[in-house]
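Good morning N.,

You mentioned wanting to compare the apo and holo forms, so I went ahead and generated the holo version with adenosine-5'-triphosphate. This is what I fed in:
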Amino acid sequence: MTQEKWGQLRQKLLKTVGQNNYSTWIEPLEFQELHDGVAVFTVPTNFMGNYVSQNFADLILYELNSSGESVQRIAFRVAANSPARPASTTKAAPRSTEDKPAAAAQTETRATSSAFEPLDSLQAAPLDARFTFDSFVVGKPNELAHAAARRVSEGGPVTFNPLVLYGGVGLGKTHLMHAIAWELKSKRPDLNVLYLSAEQFMYRFVQALRERRMMDFKHLFRSVDVLMVDDVQFIAGKDSTQEEFFHTFNALVDQNKQIIISADRAPGEIKDLEDRVKSRLQCGLVVDLHPTDYELRLGILQNKVQQHKITYPDLEIADGVLEFLAHRISTNVRVLEGALTRLFAFASLVGREIDMDLTQDCLADVLRASERKITVEEIQRKVSDYYNIRLSDIIGPKRLRSYARPRQVAMYLCKQLTSRSLPEIGRRFGGRDHTTVMHGVKRIEELKLTDGQIAEDVEMLRRALEA
Ligand SMILES: Nc1ncnc2c1ncn2[C@@H]1O[C@H](COP(=O)(O)OP(=O)(O)OP(=O)(O)O)[C@@H](O)[C@H]1O
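and this is what came out, ligand included:
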């Protein structure tokens, strides 16, 4: 970074901290160097270094990173000719800015002034009207999380504190948290319920620091009855935010106020989250949302179809489309929902029924992206094991029924669970023609409706392959 750039940044800081603070604390800072992610400034006295560290370091770090520099921490050195410390140099970097990994520090500075809301508007964190318990579909993978969320939403005596919901992307953590908040708001309007993301928590913290309103910040956060912080992994590596979160957390738990937290992984596995924060999070009830299974995905799709039908009452969905989507899109619920929304919009535009052809056309990219890792070879192996025949018999030319049927089952599964075309599948089954594959797939589709054993075999195999 050049001196000139620091000069420009100082002007920004002037606007933020006001003339008095600027003249006293910022103007005397002399930029020395930026090396290995550490921005070094000289200060006239040790006292001043400490003061600036404690009160303005986050802000300076924020501005530096916002201006495109990559700065992990700030160090203050007492000027060599300073009467206070004539010969030595002192690093006065505060705990709050030390040891921050670069990526975290950069993210921490993503806030822009327009992202800040007035501190006293804390109660107004918006909740998504669609995210209620009514619209949440419960299945095996999320039943425990759902039950815990329901319990907390009753607003009775605090039994487990905090409640931590964790799980992968798009599995319903935010949905459940909003559902709790809605429920509490309707059952216990007397309670002061605050929902916000960990990112918003940090922005407000930085804002409070910047505006020198930490007392207001502390007061506001400590006066809530239920605090919900979404995506807590965001504060990992952001030391000063973590510290403030830790104190807020303790103050609320001491007052027996309910805390609900979500994270993308178990607290113990969040990298760069301080141990004391981890251990606090582990004190209550930690429940995970498992990846969705086929049944849950199908349930969610059926539920969403009902909602779309309100907008598109005339649109029909052909049999098998939802099942196909539930099979093929297993990444996350958000993608599943997006696919359905797109299907409805597309079908209404072209005035067609939502059938398999339209689905394949309209969702080609989504289907490709969520392409299963399941391979043709894997399917062949699983099927041969299941029917207790040799792999070579599945691929080979023998037409005996005891080989032909498993072969057709394998072809059917390849069509369902991989994105291979019929000719490609044919090639991997001993160089068979695509019409043979097509016939095999059709045969199994028919048999699934009339032969309970085949339907069960296919289902068992599909589960084994997806597991
Ligand atoms: N069980 C469910 N029933 C109904 N809808 C669900 C369910 N699970 C997830 N969804 C929907 O999937 C979408 C993504 O869910 P949500 O935003 O709650 O995920 P998340 O776990 O918070 O993900 P992220 O980690 O990305 O924040 C939302 O539209 C939500 O309504």
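Residues 3-26 form the longest helix (24 residues).

Happy to go through it together on a call whenever suits you.

Best,
F.
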